[in-house]
Amino acid sequence: MVRPAWQDPVLLAPGTAPVPEYGTGSLADLLPTLVAGQGVPGFEARIAELSPADRNCVFLIDGLGWEQIKAHADEAPFLHSLLPTSRGGTGRPVTSGFPSTTATSLASVGTGLAPGEHGLPGYTVRNPDTGALMNQLRWKPWTALKAWQPYPTVFELAHAAGVRTAQVSAPDFEQTPLTKVALSGGSFLGRLTGEDRMDLAAERLAAGDRSLVYTYYSEVDGQGHRFGTDSDAWRGQLMYVDGLARRLAEQLPPRSALYITADHGMIDIPFDEQSRIDFDEDWELSAGVALLGGEGRARHVYAVPGAQADVLAVWREVLGEQFWVASRDEAVAAGWFGPHIDERVYGRIGDVVAAAHDDVVITASVKEPHESVMVGMHGSLTPAEQLVPLLEVRS
């Protein structure tokens, strides 16, 4: 029996996915814009709406997207009140990159480069030199830092140009490979409590006539993964970080600009078979697949040699109404990873790339037991994950 045309599935074309605003309004454009205003050679302002300041502070709240702030005025009254200041007073967000995940976004922030250049295009990706999956958040298995991400950070270049540069974060992050490849340069100052970080960030901001300070808080994301953004635990963290942002804003020295942003947003995924598709139990999706990379809402799929076309066809047929499913070349041509892909990065991208459109994830209960039971998820191109604030306070 031939199915009537009106019953044919409507597959999501890769070119219809919302592409990050690389070059004009993405996380990769923030630090280059700030240091251009401080006179650091080799940089130009990319986010046209921002005005220069002698002292710039970036407070990155892991996992707190634009839509989450908009929806939680009661828990985050200070951050919510700053929404009209976002992106230079336009009241608009900026975007992360793709995937909208921590390793990719922090590398974009620190290097000023899109994922296709800095080379951290996902949570886990294949290392073309070894054929093994590389976890870029935890840096496992160990991989030579400069070979993986050879570019200097904006912090390093600003420090060399005489800008007083510092990162204020949890002490455990000082020696991590991700910090070294993405955020190194100037001084790293570790403090355990959020309050101490805010106080020290303000102090370091005042320490130079030109200064660039980065500080970070992770537990909004942590509670969201564990319990979801509809939980009391997540709301409690939001209330706490709202107070931290206010504390820092109230201590800004003269001639300063504070920018409060995030690496990605988050959505909660129901625990049912329709919302959570288990790759490890799905013979169709796993057929011809050598490695499954990425994360639940942004998958890199690596086919066995010769099976690329078949894997693409099956993934598109099975998932194409709920995911943007693209070949590597289609994702690159659509600009998902930025306007340019370095040769060393091309093979890290999946033969097939699947980005969730609906509230659904592809789990891997055997290979990824921890990630598969998370409530809050992120990684894809949807507004809830992709849009992040750029809230501004000036002194």
Core attributes:
395 residues, 32% helix, alpha/beta, globular, 6-stranded mixed beta sheet
Q: In terms of topology, how is this protein built?
A:
Blueprint: H1 30-37, E1 55-61, H2 66-70, H3 77-81, H4 86-89, E2 94-95, H5 102-111, H6 115-118, E3 124-126, E4 133-135, H7 145-148, H8 154-160, E5 164-169, H9 177-182, E6 187-190, H10 194-205, E7 211-217, H11 219-227, H12 232-249, E8 256-261, E9 267-268, E10 276-278, H13 283-286, E11 289-295, E12 298-303, H14 308-319, E13 323-327, H15 328-333, H16 343-346, E14 352-356, E15 361-363, H17 369-372, E16 376-377, H18 383-386, E17 387-388, E18 391-394
Parallel strand pairs: 1-7, 1-8, 5-6, 5-7, 10-15
Antiparallel strand pairs: 2-17, 3-4, 8-18, 9-16, 11-12, 12-14, 13-14
* Count of extended strands: 18
Using the alpha-carbon principal axes, give the shape.
Answer: globular
Tell me the β content.
Answer: 15-25%
How many DSSP helices?
A: 18
**Integer average pLDDT:** 97
Major pleated sheet: 6 strands, mixed
As a percent range, the share of helical residues equals 25-40%
Radius of gyration: 21 Å
- The low-pLDDT segments are none
Judged by helices, strands and strand pairing, the structural class is alpha/beta
* Oligomeric state, counting identical vs distinct chains: single chain
Strand order of the largest sheet: 6-5-7-1-8-18
